[in-house]
Specification:
About 25% of the residues lie in helices and about 30% in strands. By secondary structure, the protein is an alpha/beta fold. It has a single domain, classed as BirA Bifunctional Protein, domain 2 (2-Layer Sandwich). Strands 1, 2, 6, 7, 8, 9, 10 and 11 form an eight-stranded mixed β-sheet that branches. Strands 4-3-5 form a three-stranded mixed β-sheet, with no helix packed on it. Strand 7 and strand 8 form a beta hairpin.
Length: about 220
């Protein structure tokens, strides 16, 4: 039997992956985590261009459902439409929240805090917006967050825009927020960061913020 240290987190850079392949990978890892066969795991990757939307009859966040430039996938998260594609860092966290506070609100705030930390380290003055999940730079949205939970094991996570090319968002109302302007790390810094570089910078903040949520583990 594999022994999993309660504090262990496995960070993996996956590269570029088609969305449904990543979803199947997450589902497999969630099952393994539920059975205690692997540690908490964070997958970092980029997607082939795709729009995702939560399961709902409300599809108004897709501006022209008959003429979208990329496929649409309906998934088991909350929220309206968003875009994933090359140049965006996606983080999928497979965590057993029995080891943390079983509080989804606190968990979402931890993801926001980790992204705020890495933005600050790059000189980006990012903030929260009251009543909205995600990370913002003034009125511009730089990161979206949406999670799913099965028996207190998490899946999905965040999407942090890195590249300056944000044209994939032009065909939707991102997260259903009218008149929102999207931005990215490279637009805000004038840099040329890659998603993989930013994933490396995020590991420390994620560990730090999750440690704040960790429950004492009985001997």
């Amino acid at each position: 039997m594999v022994t999993i240290e309660p504090h262990e987190i496995d960070f993996r850079w996956v590269g570029r992956l088609e969305y449904l392949s990543a979803l199947r990978l997450q589902e497999d890892l969630v099952q393994q985590r539920k059975l205690g066969r692997m540690p908490d795991t964070v997958l970092f990757l980029e997607h082939e261009p795709v729009y995702t939307i939560g399961r709902s009859s409300d599809r108004t966040s897709l501006l022209d459902g008959d003429a979208l430039p990329h496929p649409v996938v309906e998934i088991n998260r909350g929220g309206k439409a968003t875009f994933h594609g090359p140049g965006q860092l996606v983080g999928y966290l497979i965590l057993d929240l029995h080891l943390y506070r079983q509080d989804l609100h606190a968990y979402l705030r931890s993801l926001e805090s980790a992204i705020l930390d890495v933005c600050a380290s790059l000189g980006v003055n990012a903030t929260r917006r009251e009543g909205l999940t995600g990370v913002w730079v003034e009125g511009r949205k730089i990161a979206s967050i949406g999670v799913g939970v099965r028996h207190w094991v998490t899946m999905h996570g965040f999407a942090l825009n890195v590249s300056s090319d944000l044209s994939g968002f032009d065909s939707i109302v991102p997260c259903g927020i009218q008149d929102v302007e999207m931005t990215s790390i490279n637009r805000e810094t004038g840099g040329n960061y890659t998603p993989e570089e930013i994933s490396e910078k995020l590991q420390g903040p994620i560990l730090h913020r999750l440690a704040e949520l960790r429950q004492p583990v009985a001997a």
